[in-house]
Amino acid sequence: MPKIYPDPESEKAIMGSLVFCIHHKQGCKWSDELRKLKAHLNTCKHDAIQCPNKCGSQIPRVMMTDHLAFTCILRRAICEFCNVEFTGIGLEEHAGTCSSEPIYCESKCGTRVLRGRMSIHRAKDCAKRLRRCPHCGREFSADTLAAHGATCPRSPVPCPQRCDAGPFARAELDAHLRDECKALTVPCTFKEAGCRFKGPRHLLEAHLEANTSAHLSLMVALSGRQGQQINMLKSAMAKLSTNYTGTLLWKITDWSVKMQEAKTKDGLELVSPPFYTSQYGYKLQASMFLNGNGPGEGTHVSVYIKVLPGEYDALLKWPFSHSVTFTLFEQGTLGSGGGGQGGVAESFVPDPTWENFQRPSTEPDALGFGFPRFVSHELLNRRPFVRDDTVFLRVKVDPSKIVAV
């Protein structure tokens, strides 16, 4: 092995060369001869040294103060809430459990409470703790219980009329006032009849006993007024249902029963609803003898028209002089050539000398004018005039000769 000999000149040259601190990248700006580097590292603030607490950490001098104050696991530290001294690692374990640390209520009531008193706060003071209504048994948060109490249907309340009874559950108060409260001011039960009495309920019975006669008079008067109103309504309804077209289509149902009755009762007459020739015209009514009348008795159906007293008779021309046509329709068939419904028709033009068509008195002619042999029973049974036990008779006044005011 070759021998190595020291070279003072080379060593001197090397040790005198210009170098930067090994912590140059960490921010140290020192630069000098290599021989001075070791001495510099003994003071370089970026050079790591052993923690004086002997926690085992190598810490740059520049960070040692912070390490000793905040991160060294063997540092001595005092809890800011309970003032108990801990090692660094002990303080970390203590953090989050300190009973003296103020924290927000877990029920989110917004209050900050010491951790050690949280259970007491939630049980006794928290606005969001659940409390049971003593009246209805339902649970509410403490901050809404008072509002519920103002509307709770089982909450006891006094009678607003200050009677001797009560208190009552709020839900029962209306029934008490309506049916029982003796202090409540009530009107007489004959109020609608006109009695003006108002007083405490306990006086009502005495009032009714003392005013029986007066109440009876009021009810009689009320009944009269109601009767007038009913008559007015009936009149209005009759006007609404009145036919003003000059044509009556008379539907006669239960034909077989009525025919049988007509054969057993002499002179049995069916009368139609009244109708007008126009809104302000003549008032007419048709009638029918199912078993015939006069010359048609027992063999024919007889039809007649009579003039009734109308509202506008004073303004009309008399005697009544317009032609009238009776038509009994066949059902379910068309006339010859398909021109319309088939049937039997008879017409007449009133003679101005006939008494039947003069202006009627309050008691009009009992029969009127028409055709005692309008249609025979034989023809009625042979052709389809009756269907579904129903017959249709049309009575038509010639519209071209209607003279209305």
UniProtKB/TrEMBL annotation:
Domain TRAF-type: 39-92, 94-145, 147-205
One Gene Ontology cellular component: cytoplasm
Domain MATH: 245-397
InterPro entries: MATH/TRAF_dom, TNF_rcpt-assoc_TRAF_met, TRAF-like, TRAF1-6_MATH_dom, Znf_RING/FYVE/PHD, Znf_TRAF
Name of the featured protein: TNF receptor-associated factor 4
PANTHER family in alphabetical order: TNF RECEPTOR ASSOCIATED FACTOR, TNF RECEPTOR-ASSOCIATED FACTOR 4
Source organism (scientific name): Anopheles epiroticus
ZnF bounds (TRAF-type): 39-92, 94-145, 147-205
GO biological process, one term: regulation of apoptotic process
